[in-house]
Amino acid sequence: MNKEKSFFSKIDLPIFSISLVLMVLFVGLTMLQPKAAGEVFSAVQNFITVNFGWTYLWGVTFILAFSLGLAFSKFGNITLGKDGDKPEYSTWSWFAMLFSSGMGIGLVFWGVAEPMSFYAKPPYGEPSSIQSAQIAMRYTFFHWGLHPWSVFALVGMAMAYFQFRKGLPALVSSTLYPLIGEQGAKGWLGKFVDILALFVTIFGVATSLGLGAMQITAGLNYAYGISASMMVTIIIIIVMTALYIAAAVSGIERGIKFFSDLNMVLVVLILATLVVAGPTLYILNGLTETSGAYMQNIVQMSFWADTFNTNPGWIGGWTIFYWAWWVSWGPFVGSFIARISKGRTIKEFVLGVLVAPTVMSFLWLSVMGYSALYVDVVQHGEIAATVAKDVSAAIFAMFQHYPLASILTFMTVLVIATFFITSANAATFVMAMLTSGGDLNPRAGLKIVWGLSSSVAAIALLIAGGLGALQTAAIAAAFPFVFVMLAMAASLVKAFTREVDKDRVEPQVNNYNTNTTIT
Q1: Could you give the 3-state DSSP secondary structure of residue 228?
Q2: How is 382-435 classified by DSSP, letter by letter?
Q3: pLDDT tens digits for range 372-395
Q4: What pLDDT digit, counting tens, does each position of 49-60 carry?
Q5: Terminus of the chain with fewer CB atoms < 10 Å: N or C?
Q6: Which region, left, alpha or beta, applies to residue 226 given φ > 0 means left and ψ of -120 to 50 means alpha?
């Protein structure tokens, strides 16, 4: 058979086979012993958050400072591509794809649930008070603001630079080339890094797919009375899997770009409807106040580790979980952002990735969070009580207090579905790329294999422990990748310094051989 036309042509056999075997073992053991698996997940999460939570706090904060530092340094004018390369996508489409692939399902799931959870159980202070409402919105902004986007910016910048400017394969291991050299990148160390990136991606995506399916189930239950059972959730995952695999096979232009643009239109419609129909002045004042509080307190929040144990488990269950979740999304969101960012300068890339999606996230969180808080704080409603029972139903419970609830519910379910498709679509593309030697146009067969793997992992985790298992998977898988990201930062500094230092001879990497283990 002609390998170039084969359904599974150009596979990196070591990475593909080892990753697939380990994935099958994980899913099989989890499905066979879900209770025992759930207990193991809980123990792992507790061990990491208690003993190494501070590592996430330092690591992610350093990544944010490092990314901003690069943007305004002498390296800011370096192009992510050859000199003269221009961006392939318009600024609007670029922002839409950034936002859809980088946040998506999580924002919809937690947009109401998180502020109301913090309002009822704040990290410190009196619960269900004006103070806890202010703290709730400030920490919600913190968890969805500059820190997570800096994770994506670092990985994306490193991937884009070494792919498009240095001619290296589109692999995570390529980002460490200045540190480990060609032999290291091609050898066992490079393979280990790429396999780790693949596993981190699978569990990061599985977490998001599980959250999205749980929320679609809750929305269908609210709107149409469909049973909110585990079986319905699994059926939703299966249906969504078929849709996002079809989109992934169709390619970026027809798949991801189309759904990303659709997402943005739907998001704007939901926001506009709720701003007009909801407490408009309350939302605008809240957005203004929380934006200022976020900027004023960002350093304190970045390093708060609850040393005196004022609220046991809060920092591990929220901030550490989020930082781990963003790190677990780093390989696939970063790789995807790199794929769509060729031709942009370091400064343009970093500021675009950090600022634009953060602003959009703050708009969404303000509209959703303050609309919900208005009901409980001003009108003395019970949305927080609903959230305590079922976090996946939070946004739909809030809609019931405003006009056009059924329309908003329908549009939100549609947004979740399209976010589901874009996030999984981007991840499927990246996983196929990682197992094909960095091929920027991987074959459909690989996309299908990894798309199915992510969905099966999500189902296994839901059966093993629901939301808790999903959170644990993200935290455990992401921990070693934090150190890979710190190595990426050192690698970038070394490469950028060589480039701007005219007296140094840059190593030749154009002859990098990627065909050694690829069939």
Answers
A1: coil
A2: -HHHHHHH-GGGHHHHHHTTSTTHHHHHHHHHHHHHHHHHHHHHHHHHHHHHHT
A3: 999 999 999 999 999 999 888 999
A4: 888 899 999 999
A5: N
A6: beta
